[in-house]
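pasting for ref. prot 1 ->
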Amino acid sequence: MRRDAIRGIGVCLTLWLGARDTLHAQTVQGVLLGRMPPQPLSGVVITAARTRDGEIVARAVTSESGRFQLSVGPDSVVVRALRIGQRPVTLFLGRLAAGMREDVSRTLPDEPVAIASVRVRERARCGAASPDSSVVSALFADALTALAGSVSPMEGAAPVMRSVRVEEERDRRGRVQAISAPVVSEGATTQAFRSVPVPLLLQEGFVVREADGGSTYRAPDAVVLTDDRFLARTCLSLDRSREDDGRIGIRFTPAKRTDTRIDVEGVLWLDAATRSLETLEFGYLGLTSVAASVNPGGTVEYTQLPDGRWIIERWALRMPRLDVTMMPVPRGGGRMERLQAVGTSVVRGLVTEVRAGNRVLYSAGGASGDAALRSALTRREDITRPVAPQARMDSAVLVAGVSATALARVRQCVERTSNSTTRGMALVVRVLDSGGTARAATAVEAEWRTRYTRMAEGSWAWEAARARAETDQAGEAVLCDVTASGRVKVSAMPPGCEPVRVTLRPAVGMLVSDVVLRLPRGCGA
């Protein structure tokens, strides 16, 4: 028996090289403010495109202070500001002399692109145009804005991202047969993985047969999905199959197929209320029937950090495991080779922490999450088995370094959860000042979504739940019954200072999480 070699994409962290040297370059820079209320706009995607062919030559994302800087080169360019749900704003059009800097600071108008009741059925591209096809284009523009934001530099050093990755072997029913030891990576980047260059993909396709008989599977990343050369060969349509769950999809398929290349098709899922990008799902077109029988493909989950950056927080790539066996010939005797799919190889990873300096922007559970994070890399059904009450109680001691008072409160939360049908967790929030001293009497809040519901006026929106507390003398607060099945926005609200926020994504089934919020310098007691 010979096993067909399968190679996945490299999902290791790659170092972000920083912005290009702008000492002698043409530079467009500025500070962008919002009109209502007047405040810096973070997370705005700035693009510079050559006017002669529309190719994007530079991208950036505004920082929390609303600042950005682009090195645009000697060509004539158009610089635009892109915000999800808002009309693009042209900041600059023209050519700059060598070494020239153009300041385009301004207050951006509030001009939302209204998306009425989405009833579009026609394709916005590659099909008969309909009066509503602009809906698809507007939603796709929002998805592209988030994708561009995930690969665009922000003023200052890149954040430090820590991730963990495992490789699994699964049978045809999806059951784990083997799993590698977790591999932890850390580096200054916001990109969890990178695909190969677009020209190579368009020439060779997304699956390449190697000289030794193995196959290399490639995944589309944000650079690919926002490249005009890829989009020029892509058709778009609306996918409404998950509207009841609060999601609307933009399906992309190749405009023209060829037997000589393996292509991808997929769906970009957006939040139907906020129009922010949530998930990319994709599969392969043109595989043999044997390889396609195990549904190879992948998922990539996106989220926006409190400072406006977009990151990939989770990803997975499924590849077929193929065996060649000798089978008897029904008539005439003898034996023949038969290729069959015996399961899948899965590369799975998640981001565990993102830090900017000593400030945490994103956390997947803090100190209590290490064991649960490894479990979270497997499928949900593998990690949601009933947990014995004693095991629930023992999990409370996973929170290291907290006071006896907070630990007792954690145990109360866990005990209450174990005696009820509530699927919540205990959340320990520690608030420190810039010097690392505990900050007492600071209000903290956790907020998360509960359900997508129709409002009285007929529109749809997410309902939210909140838990609030105040830190004690040790700078600690314990929140009970916080959701353990989705993202949680955790905030510290010190008197007289701006709130400090972090995005928390606990592993499925986690009973206890903790997170540290550091107040900025100058935020007095």
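and prot 2 ->
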Amino acid sequence: MDLKKLENKINIIKNKLRVGNSDEVIRDTKSLIKKFSDQQILYNILSLAYQQKGENDKSIDLLTNALKKNPKNIFFLNNIGVSYYNKKNLVEAEYYFKRVLEINPNYINALNNLGNLKKDLDLLDEAKNFYKKSVKLNDNVMETHYNLGLLYQQFGNFEKSLYHYKKTLELNPKFTKADHEIAMITKYSSKNKHFLDIQKKLTNKDLNDFEKLELHFALGKAYDDLKDYKNSFFHIERANLLKKKITKYNIKNDVKLFDNIKSFFSKISLNKLNSNKKKIIFILGMPRSGTTLVEQIISSHKNVYGGGEIPILGQAFYEKFKNNNQLNKNNEISINYYNELIDIQKKYIEQISIIDNSQKVFTDKAPLNFRWIGFILSVFPNSKIIHCKRKKIDNCWSIYKNNFAGSLNFSYNLEDLGFFHNLYEELMSFWNNKFKDKIYNLSYEDLINNQDAQIKLLIKFCGLDWDPNCLEFHKNTKIIKTVSFAQARKPIYKSSINSSSKYLKYLNKLTSVLKS
């Protein structure tokens, strides 16, 4: 094969990668590597395909071996850093990004990646500095402007955020994530230019499914603003159909996981590990159940640091738990398993200490940690558990109309969503029976309707002295990284109660599944 044919094949593979056909990319790239092992671009493409599938360890192993022949290859080093970043191993990720910049201080991808990493650590000035350096080197890099848009949005500075999203779209009109983010910070009228633009853009036949679904979510939000609920639901449903097609989620995997968890904790009680010095408050429940609001309230306390969503426990426990092989024949836990739990405790404390190394109480609001309450109470025996619950139809609708990054693949189909909510309720009932006095169950509706009294009870459960700042939570300047970034910066309002009522006639597939 001559170089021209090879280049054509690589371009075909790149297009497959762009539209998410990672399995085909892996197959085709491996085949080419056997014939052209000296073509470094193939290793990077294969690495990206592994990352796209969430197989970050394979990406790391591949490029670590490739580095042996070329230890100063900045593309290999950067992609290893990205894989570690995806695994939320921020220490290793930072090490590799900095190695890149030692070789080439002006490599914009590494500058952006370090900016993202620093933002995750709430080192916001450092993050901004990396992004600004990138812009100074080249003002025409789409990713940098998108990153700055997200940073300002999470700060609540929507004017600057909008500027950078518009700049993103000037550089790449097909980067429709920026359109979706604009929709999230815009109150639409029927003549709004962006509203008209995204309707027209959706007719572009060159858009792939990833690009289309962002526009559908954006239009769902826009039509909701216009009180055109029929068209709003149409676009939200189209977005979810595309996302479901991409994720290929199967509810049976979660049914098995939840059954394994209940079976495990029905047979044994984990011994508590030694208490850690860092006091942690875990805020959990279904996504969109008020977890961001609750963290915003608690982290307004002078002695509390709001850590946001920390993914470490979900990753660690899922890997160790999905096959339910921790018990021996006598229904006992092995010493090795306890050693693994101690290792999880150590790594978690190390990670959050990078974010905040003060003596403050630390909050972790990763919602899906509700799956691991039994583990959390063993690994962090002096922690507090706050379970946020919300009227189920409102909760599910609020999930369905939003596009989430990460592991919420149950949310893109109404029946899947209903079944998952049932699994959640059954598991929380199990936890509440097993750990009656350890879990604080907070109703979102009670919090909204009786703000002062509920907040005071909440702070008392946390073991904190009263701080009136907790009633002024909307003034909290803490960065908000979830889709609740706008709501949590406002005083409590009641419009979110019964928010699904305007869409009930479209939600039969959900209501028929949800348990009464």
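Residues 214 and 437 are 43 Å apart (CA to CA).
The mean pLDDT is 89.
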